Structures are given as C-alpha cells and as structure tokens.
Amino acid sequence: MKIHEYQGKQILEKYGVAVPRGRATDKVGEVEAIAKELGTSKVVVKAQIHAGGRGKGGGVKVVDVADVKETADQILGMTLKTHQTGPEGQEVRKILIEEAMDIQKELYIGVLVDRSKSRPAIMASEAGGMEIEEVAAAAPEKIFKVAIDPAVGIQPYQARLLAFKLGIPKEMMRDATSFIMKLYQCFIAEDCSMAEINPLILTGDGRVLALDCKMTIDDNALFRHKDTQEFRDLNEEEPLEIEASKHELNYIKLDGNIGCMVNGAGLAMATMDIIKHTGGEPANFLDVGGGASEEQVENAFKIILADKNVKAVFINILGGILRCDRLATGVVNAAKKVKVDIPIIIRMEGTNMDEGKAILNESGMEFILADGMRDGAEKAVAALK
Amino acid sequence: MSVLVDKNSKIVVQGITGKEGTFHATQCKAYGTQVVAGVTPGKKGQSVEGIPVFNTVEEAVQETDANVSLIFVPPPFAADAILEGADAGIDLIVCITEGIPSVNMIQVYRAIQNSGSRLIGPNCPGIITPGQCKIGIMPGHIHIPGKIGVISRSGTLTYEVVSQLTSLGIGQSTCIGIGGDPIIGTSFIDALSLFNEDLETSTVCMIGEIGGTGEEEAANYIKENFNKPVVGFIAGQTAPPGRRMGHAGAIISGGKGTAEEKMKVMEESGITVCKSPADMGVTIQSVMK
Description:
- The complex is a heterodimer of chains A (about 375) and B (about 290).
- Chain A has about 375 residues and is an alpha+beta fold.
- In chain A, about 35% of the residues lie in helices and about 25% in strands.
- Chain A contains 13 helices and 18 strands.
- In chain A, strands 7, 8, 9, 10, 11 and 12 form a 6-stranded antiparallel β-sheet that branches.
- The two termini of chain A are about 40 Å apart.
- Chain B has helices at about 20-30, 55-65, 75-85, 100-115, 155-165, 190-195, 215-225, 260-270, 280-285; strands spanning about 10-15, 35-40, 45-50, 50-55, 70, 90-95, 120, 125-130, 135, 145-150, 170-175, 205-210, 230-235, 270-275.
- With about 290 residues, chain B is an alpha/beta fold.
- Chain B is built from 9 helices and 14 strands.
- The two termini of chain B are about 15 Å apart.
- The longest helix of chain B has 13 residues, at about 20-30.
- In chain B, the strands form 2 sheets. Chain B has a 7-stranded mixed β-sheet, with helices on both faces.
- Classes of the chains: A alpha+beta (about 375), B alpha/beta (about 290).
- Chains A and B meet through helix 4, helix 9, strand 16, strand 17 and helix 13 of A and helix 4 and helix 5 of B.
C-alpha cells in the first residue's frame, strides 16, 4: 500500500528520523495559521498525491509566508499531471505546509527488499533529488548498496560505510549514521516494502533531515498495523479496483475492450498476453481465486461489466480440483442476474468438464465455448467484429 | 528417478484440521501419497481421514518418521510453522500459504540457511512427482509420469502447461511450483540444479513472470552450467508497470523485472522462449530429447 509523504513522515518521526516541521491540511483557511506556527520566513507548500514528479508538475512551491494562502489555493484542488499520474492527472486533495530548509546538499537513501539476496538492502547515492532509476541507468557507479543480515539487523559500521560513501562531513557523521540506523529500524518495524528518502538533506546549520519520503507498506503485513491501515487513500485508487478489493478479487483495470475472468494470477497474466498476441486488447487483469464460487463469479462479472469499454468477456478457467459443473452453474446464474448483453467466451477445463458444458448449452443463453486458450482468445477477438 | 520427492516421501501436514488442510491432505492421500501425520497445536489424538494429528512437528516426526512437511497454516502463523518444521529436522518443507509478510520471510530464509531443510514456496501449489506422490494443491489427474521437469512461479499456469503436455502424451518427471512471492525458499537456479543431476529428466520447462530477477539469474546459470534443453515462458508481457499482478512478487518496479527484459536474457542464454502460452506444449515437444 502506498502512503502519502506527510503520512510517511509521521511514521519516520516515531522512530526519531529527523524531518522538517510541518502539518498537512485540506483547508486553505488553515494554511496561514500553520505557516505562522512554523515561524520561518519561507515555507514550502507540497501537493500530497501518491505519484512522483510533483515538483516538475508544479505541485511543490517555496513561498514567503505572506503568499502561502494564495499558493495553497492554487495547489489544493488542482489536477496535477506528472510522468507517473498519466495524462489524466490526479486531483490534489491535501497539501503539506513545511518550514523551508537551508539546503546545502541533496543526497539519496532508500531501504528496500533485495529479492536476489533475500535480504533488506540500503541504497545510497550522492545524486540526491534525481530518480534513483535514472541514476542506476546513467551512472550506476554512483549507487552504493549494503545488504543487511536480518538475524542481527543493521550494524553501526554499515551506517558509517554508507555515510562515508555519501561524503558526509565529519561534524555530521554522528547524526547521519543515527539517521540511517533509525530509518532501517523503521523499515522493519513498520513492515515497509520500500522507504525512500529523496532527497536526504544536509542543512547550513549542520542537520541531517528527510526532505521527502516515499513509503510503501507490505500489504500482507497490514493486519498487524491498524494505525497504518487508516492511511489508505481511496481517492488514489481506481473505483472498480476498490469495489473488487471488497470482494477479495484481484482486479486491475487496463485500457482494452476484452474483459477477462481467470483463476490464478499467472494464468490471468498469460490470458492478457494471449489476447494481445491474437490482436485484441485486454480490458483488465482479474483473478477470481482458486475457489471461484458462484458469488465470486457474479461479483467478477459485475466489476468487469461496469467498465464501459468492455465489449466481450473471456472466461478462462482451468478447473483442476475446481469442478466445471459447479463453475458453469455459477456463470449461468451470475449472467442471468447481471444481465449480460455482450458476447461471453468460455474456456473451461478440469473435473466434470462435459457436465459443465452441458449446463452452459442448456441454459438458453448464448455462450461461445472455446477449446483451449488460443481458441478462446481468437473467438473473443472475432466476437468484437 | 525424480527430484526431491518420490513414493517413499512421508508427509506431515501442518494445519491439517483447517478447511484447506483437511481437503488437500485427503486429496494428496487419495493420489497415493504417504500422508502419515498432521499437526494442529492442541488437537493431539484427533484424526483426519485416518491421519493421526499431533501437537507439534517434533512429535509427528518421532512417531511417524515424516520427512516432508506441507503447510496450510494462515499467513500470520505460517513463518512460525516453517521454522517449527525446520527445527524438527524435516528435509523438505512445502509452504502453500499465500500472504506471509516479507519481513517474516526474510528472517525465515536467513534461519533455514543454517538448517538441513529445504523450503519450497511460500505462495505456491507445491510439488508433484507424477505417479508417485503429490504434495500440494495441484490437480493430480492432469499429470502423467515422464521426462519433463517443470519449474514455475505460478499455480494455474503450471496446470495449463502440464495439461498441454499430457494431452500430447508427454509426461513429467517432477513439477515444482516455486511460488509467487518476492522471497522464496527455492529459486529457479536451485530447482534447475536438481534437474541437472536427475537422470530421468531430459528437458526442463521454466515458467516465469514479471518482477524480480530470478529468471535472468537462472538464464545465466543455464548458459554456464545446464546440459539439457530448456523451454521458457514469461507471464505478464502486457502487464502495466508499478502494479502488483495478483502475486506479491509480480510487479515491475523502477523499470526492472519486465517480461521483455527477461525474455531477451533467456533467449540469449539459449533457452527456447515461447511468446504465447498456448505454444508451451508443442514447443517442448519440438526441442525435447
């Protein structure tokens, strides 16, 4: 789960990771009071959306306290377009007002899971402010990486190593190593998938702070972080995906016109792939899960059809243990309830396949039966014409 | 021959009294697998379809000589279950559970490096040696014994490939579902090295997906060390970046882990890469020894 910058900074503060003072709000009327409270001559107004590239898109401004209201008014409610939001942009519903910092140096530090080592790793780079992917592509030698042994956790020498690589001045070493160690502790204790501080700044008065914070929480660990669960921002999610998550369906909306209903994530991806290979465009990824009960099939139908781009539905179920007769009954009942008026192509294989096909044939509804994945994809593409 | 498991494997099912545990323990037994014990803390003395239930894995091992464990314990407790299995001296731990937090799996992975146990999964369908034993949730009847080794990050997509193979009359030596999570006990390379040594396996099929670099690392290993033909497929060629496609590990992040990149590296390493999932069976047929 992605969270906003201000939420990430709240979490960092719990672990003693230094962040600029500031407060988030969704009301223009509050910003002058917040700026006054901060007591600095300049403040930063930062749009709170999940996508990166906010500064370039005009969502981050440093202003005099006298102008904070005007700037806040411009940013709140604007549709911010960045390279990560897509052309439709994202509406800004919340802003963070922070004290402006005397920035001497911008660095990068991030904690993530290094999958190839099966360990957490800390990445650091002197190229702060730039996206780490760009640095990795252009100058990989500028990125330093330290893997952490989870049995003992981060050691002071590892934090020192990174701090030296970052060229931290002697008088700030203690703060910098403490910052890195606390950031790692936060990553583990809060079950982060990623905690990225970009930039990490060194200030004129000798401080080390997280100027920005991009944090992602491991969805599988949310059950033990009730407070973090409340950070979920439904405005940042696709409405159909929110609906799907209520029914424990794995659904991701895409731009095509062939809706897909599949059991299993790998087969669901492969189904999208074969539709594309056959000359069609998948409208979604949807994994109905291993059980694929009648209720799940019905919910899946509703969600697929709520996408008005969908002109045909390809159901690809590899039964195995799941019985095809039960699935067929589910599909027929769901299709009756939901009133489907576009072609439905069904490929199903597994236990009681013949009984399943008989149920579909006798339902009085017009299903197009397919034999295998390729046949299904071809029939789905043909049905559009 | 086969890899890791055969008709002599003795299985203990951890979490056997749960709905999934009971159902699949019964299915595995019906396939002919020696399911000798179950474990659910506090339920010692009960039995599930004639399988005796114990309080601890240690006790189950002492009483029944179980050497493989199959885990259906819910996510918050599954990491603990894996470590319990390892501590009891289980040779092979197969964890079906989906949704174990990464932080726990990182610790488990570290801990089992120093044990004698191998972990398969989590978030996987399990392992099957057709005609001998089925240790997992896959439909047994679609498999037939033969010479193709199958390694896969996905469940139903593996069934798709196996089903294509079987309908062509091509059997499988062992099929290993290594799991769809970012941290897994047995990697593609681990599984490949086992198949490399297995005399019965003539050809290997590897089914990858977007996310991580396991396929690229495997491709490099194959280029240097592998002496059998390999056919590969990568799911998620049309997946958008930055989105988790069902599996916790199936995500393109920071431009890394795309299907395109994986397929390119695999092809360069001499793997026959299928672009369409419908061609897996026939492609294997055309390259198999």
